[in-house]
Amino acid sequence: MDRVKSSMQQVPNPIHKALIRRTGGANSFELEKENFERGQAVSINKAINTQEVAVKEKHARNILLKGAHTFWATVNRLPLSSNAVLCWKFCHVFHKLLRDGHPNVIKDSIRNKADLGDMSRMWGHLSEGYGKLCSIYLKLLITKMEFHVKNPRFPGNLQMSNRQLDEAGENDVNNFFQLTVEMLDYLECELNLFLGVFSSLDMSRSVSVTAAGQCRLAPLIQVILDSSHLYDYTVKLLFKLHSCLPADTLQGHRDRFQEQFNKLKSLFYRSSNLQYFKRLIQIPQLPENPPNFLRASALSEHISPVVVIPAESSSPEMEHMADLVTEDLVDTDIPAQPVAHLNMFDDLFGTSAATDPFNFNSQNGMRKDDKDRLIEQLTREIQALREELESFRLESGRLCQALRGRVDELEAELAEQSHLSMQALGEGEFLRAELDDLRRVKEDTEKEQRSLTEIERKAVANEQRYVKLKEKYTELVQSHADLLRKVGPFRPLMIEEPQTHGAGVSELVRAVTHLAHLVGDTIVQGSATSHMVPVEQKLRPQGLELQQGELGDLVEQEMAATSAAVESAAARIEDMLNKSRAVDTGVKMEVNERILASCTDLMQAIKVLVLSSKDLQRDIVESGRGAASMKEFYVKNSRWTEGLISASKAVGWGATVMVDAADLVVQGKGKYEELMVCSHEIAASTAQLVAASKVKADKDNANLGRLKLASKGVTQATAGVVASTKSGKSQIEEKDTMDFSSMTLTQIKRQEMDSQVSVLELETKLQKERERLGELRKKHYELAGVAEGWGEEDEGAYVCLRVIT
């Protein structure tokens, strides 16, 4: 009994040790809490800083360990309203906290919605850079919090089953309708951020490999995760609504979904081609066409887009979990302070290892040296295994890194090859379309060529027919004249008395008989001639009733008359210029000199044009007449000759009219518009002369080149006349300025109404004058066609003459 009592006295007091351990545990909890808050603050400050780099994943994971109290306590001390990059990285971390953090994060953060709204409006005043992006991102975060507050069944990461989605709407079509609208609004904010980030980047360069580009692209991973779920749920809800409501009621939903579908498809495709996303996330591709909600069976064809984040062996997350396990193991050990108390207890009361009856090691005879050696041996084995495990881990990490680099290279090559193949397909489609266009152009050209050949063939046939008929007509006329000459000598015989020469009765009878035969032949041939005359007149060009000598002389006369008219016009302009210098002064004299000088230049250009036309005409006659004379060539080409005559007359008449108009303008009796119209008219006449001159010209003729240069000179001189006339008009006319100082509001309104009435009247008058001008031009073309002898059968042969007119 005494031995037991002494042994019990030597056993340490368990109550004392429990008290010591409890006190040490409380201090450890406070220390752990302080260390955690300090670590959270360090992680937040490292994740949210002013450096334009992407947020590191390990810092973001540390922030997700607890709720939002510590996060907001630290963030509220940051200058988010003064630095756009700092605010952008805050939005990224806060978005990740809302998605992957504790469910109470949304409840703890909704109280800061007003501050976030003010910050969004403040950054919205900036139109570029991170300021605009921060404004869009803050609106998205506010929308996300409001959505989850209204729909608490949806978790922050939006991962739900179909049954949970049905429960969220409580199987009520009204709730499903409202939920669809909220999801479309939510997805609209996600797409706005997507588009804002892409529009702020220069996609022509490899921005995804730069630190600044990764800083802007990093938050899009959260956006892609949210958008894929929102798209999937929206499709399912729309199919459910179409099964309960009429299609017309949901037209707005379908239109809005169609627009968002196209945007999301394009953004997913563009994101999947960026090198930054390829190693972090696997982005799904949406179907080519949106779902057909009007067909209920299309729901079975819908495939939910799944975003895959590749898992890495030895990832930072696994390392972080290992650290947490190590810390937990350290915390569960007996603190250092209770161990010190136990040592003090042993020093005071002595160790009981030798005398303790419950010390079984002593009873079994195991010595302490054996235990130490065993512990050391096991420690060495553990250390060796750890080193071997570490080498294996390093080797596997190196191999994984090498394989990952190879995979990235292969993916880059695959993307490049895909891009090249798509580019080749696009080029092939473009070339195929261009080939089809060329084929169509070739077919049209061949058709036009065949049509032109047919027209030329008909024209040649008509010309030959006309020549033959004309020759036949000439023969008939000549035969008729011969018959008349033959009948003439027999008329006296019919008048003389038959009794005068009785002996010549028989001869008279024979003569009369012969005369009867001749008269019969004359009647028959005259009848044939009368039938041929209408045909000849129809085929014969109207207005060409001149004889050979007259037609050739007329061409020379008209060209000479045109030259004389131009010379006379130039002399009159010089005379008017001298008179104006003697009478006018100041601005009036300056304007008149400028206008008359431009008119003189125009007349000189027309003179050069007429001379060039004569030279070209002479070359055409020399090269085309052959053995025939010049007059015979003009008669043979009567159409072309008459075109030259008409064009020459038009040029001479235009020069005379323009000089008359210039004279009236200089005297102050005419209108500047008349002078401009006359200049345009004479330019058109010279263009007609040029076209008529080069119809039969050789394209390599030197005189033809000079004629074209002269035509350009006439065009430039005409433009000079118009410009000088407009400039002079603006200098002469006085522009009245209205005095509003003495006018009341009513008077101004009255004059405004009067001006509107005048504008309407002038517009009506302008429209009527334009219609009248169109009728005049139409009638002019008709009369010109009649004067030139155009007919239905001549239409293909005289297209060029119509273009000239």
Automatic annotation (TrEMBL):
Keywords, in A-Z order: Acetylation, Actin-binding, Coiled coil, Cytoplasm, Cytoplasmic vesicle, Endocytosis, Membrane
Coiled-coil positions: 368-472
InterPro entries hit by this protein: ANTH_dom, ENTH, ENTH_VHS, I/LWEQ_dom_sf, ILWEQ_dom, Sla2_fam
An annotated GO BP: membrane organization
Principal localisation: cytoplasm
GO molecular function: actin filament binding; clathrin adaptor activity; clathrin light chain binding; phosphatidylinositol-3,4-bisphosphate binding; phosphatidylinositol-3,5-bisphosphate binding; protein homodimerization activity
Compartments, as annotated in UniProt: Cytoplasm, Perinuclear region; Cytoplasmic vesicle membrane
GO cellular component assignments: clathrin-coated vesicle; cortical actin cytoskeleton; cytoplasmic vesicle membrane; perinuclear region of cytoplasm; presynapse
Residue span(s) of domain I/LWEQ: 543-784
Pfam families with a match to the protein in the record: ANTH (PF07651), I_LWEQ (PF01608)
Role according to the record: Component of clathrin-coated pits and vesicles, that may link the endocytic machinery to the actin cytoskeleton. Binds 3-phosphoinositides (via ENTH domain). May act through the ENTH domain to promote cell survival by stabilizing receptor tyrosine kinases following ligand-induced endocytosis.
Oligomer status and interactors: Homodimer. Interacts with actin; homodimerization promotes actin binding. Interacts with CLTB. Interacts with HIP1. Interacts (via ENTH and I/LWEQ domains) with BCL2L10.
Family named by the database record: Belongs to the SLA2 family.
Protein name in UniProt: Huntingtin-interacting protein 1-related protein
Gene: HIP1
